[in-house]
Design brief:
Blueprint: H1 3-11, H2 19-38, E1 40-41, E2 48-49, H3 51-62, H4 64-79, H5 92-96, H6 100-119, H7 123-149, H8 153-160, H9 165-182
Antiparallel strand pairs: 1-2
Length: about 190
């Protein structure tokens, strides 16, 4: 590879301290989450999407602050009218609706994953960190789903939490493998 390409790739490294590179990765993960929202298997009341895969990666690769900031940007884009939510949805109504708790949990989940990975690094710890991030997503999502729809809590738990278990275990393993393959030292407590 020519030296100029190597320099260009190094200058875009996830660990770069340059503000423009940090902004690039924050925006990139917000957009990847938007793309993940469009990769969907329709299901009521909550569709199966790839969003949480990118939420986990944002915390795992960008760290707690940049990862959660990326998810705040994602939410902001959707609130102001960009079609970044599932089924090309957008607007405050999505945030206040039955699936809004899942969306609102994304910055929290990214923060949790990034914070835990700033403490320790091993495949088991990565998977554990991501499992806690997913737990935050599904607890907050299920609570809002039940509250907004008036579902019995058992029904909300079944259709908003349990049904996603198999799908999200696959995403958790894949995201853990990606973060582990990138290597330690990427996530800094910043």
């Amino acid at each position: 590879m020519p030296p100029t390409r190597v320099y260009a790739l190094k200058s875009l490294a996830l660990t770069s301290e340059h503000a423009a590179v940090k902004a690039f990765w924050i925006v990139t993960f917000a957009l990847l989450t938007a793309v993940g929202a469009q990769i969907e298997i329709p299901h009521q009341p909550v569709p199966f999407t790839m969003q949480t895969f990118f939420v986990l990666l944002s915390g795992g690769l960008l760290g707690m602050r940049k990862g959660s900031l990326s998810m705040v940007l994602y939410l902001g884009l959707g609130i102001v009218g960009f079609p970044v939510f599932s089924s090309a949805g957008f607007g405050l109504a999505r945030i206040l609706g039955p699936t809004g708790g899942y969306l609102l949990s994304f910055p929290i989940a990214a923060f949790v994953v990034g914070w835990l990975l700033s403490i320790r690094w091993s495949f088991g710890w990565i998977a554990f960190s991501m499992a806690l991030g997913l737990l935050a997503v599904f607890v907050l999502g299920t609570l809002q789903l039940g509250a907004v729809t008036g579902m019995e809590w058992g029904d909300a738990f079944s259709s908003g939490f349990l049904i996603f278990s198999w799908w999200d275990i696959l995403k958790l393993v894949a995201a853990s493998a990606v973060v582990r393959s990138v290597g330690p030292g990427i996530v800094k407590p910043t």
